[in-house]
Design a protein that fits this description.
The chain contains eight helices and eleven strands. It is an alpha/beta fold and 238 residues long. Strands 4-3-5-2-1-6-10-11-9 form a nine-stranded mixed sheet, with helices on both faces. Helix 1 links the parallel strand 1 and strand 2 (47-52). Helix 1 (28-42) crosses helix 3 and helix 5 (142-152) packs parallel to helix 7.
Length: 238
């Protein structure tokens, strides 16, 4: 097998990746499918950390629209990411992959607290590390948490896994003629207001020269090919 180009990655997943066809809740079949996708690159010897969102369980905007405090809405979202992390860890464990869930908000009965050095030791031992509860602070998205953790653990690549096969100049569902970018710079993505990652996450990656690949997780072998260094999805870099 061809050797991977990247040996340690941070994989950013949306909560919808666990939801199945109804885009809500946690679907065990979707969790199993996701675990198998992760196993492919784990078996290549790649060290994998994962940050997962909570859109399948809670969207803070719904709370804000009803007058909820932003901090409360964000903390609820952080807790929902931990539920998703535990579900994915269980699915990975059932196919023989050793995992550790670490959380930015301490909840020692269900997960380890996030400690950078400990997370890196787990990765070095071949464990998949799933990082829950975002950054532990309100007003920061899971995109920003993914960018931050990617830097902290010395990842070589941040993979933003979506249901779209890359970054487009406009919504390809609304505009069939929308141009897809094979590569784009951080500055261009920021200036064009592309909703691939939030501005804080993009800026953090730019300042620390962290390459980002945006791809369709469910396109056959897309994640594997990206790890091998093939042109998949959209590469965001300098």
């Amino acid at each position: 097998m061809t050797s991977p180009k990247y040996h340690r990655i941070l994989l950013k997943l949306g909560g919808e990746s666990l939801a199945g066809e109804h885009n809500f809740g946690i679907n065990p079949d979707a969790a199993d499918r996701l675990a198998e996708t992760v196993r492919v690159i784990h078996d290549m010897g790649v060290e994998i950390a994962i940050v997962i969102g909570a859109g399948n369980l809670w969207r803070g905007k719904d709370g804000l629209d009803h007058g909820m405090e932003r901090a409360t809405a964000d903390h609820m979202g952080m807790l929902a990411t931990v539920m998703n992390a535990l579900a994915l860890a269980d699915a990975l464990g059932r196919i023989g992959i050793d995992t550790r869930v670490q959380t930015a908000i301490e909840m020692k009965a269900v997960a380890e607290p996030y400690i950078r050095g400990r997370a890196m030791r787990h990765l070095e031992k071949g464990r998949v590390v799933i990082l829950g509860a975002g950054t532990g602070n309100p007003y920061f998205t899971t995109d920003t948490a993914a960018a931050l953790r990617a830097m902290e653990i010395d990842a070589e690549l941040l993979v933003k896994a979506t249901k779209v096969d890359g970054v487009y100049e406009s919504d390809p569902k609304a505009d069939p003629d929308a141009k897809k970018f094979e590569t784009i710079s951080y500055i261009e993505a920021l200036n064009l207001g592309l909703k691939v990652l939030d501005g804080t996450a993009l800026t953090l990656c730019m300042e620390n020269q962290m390459p980002i690949v945006v791809l369709d997780l469910w396109q056959q072998d897309s994640l594997k090919n990206a790890i091998l260094g093939d042109a998949v999805g959209t590469l965001i870099t300098y």
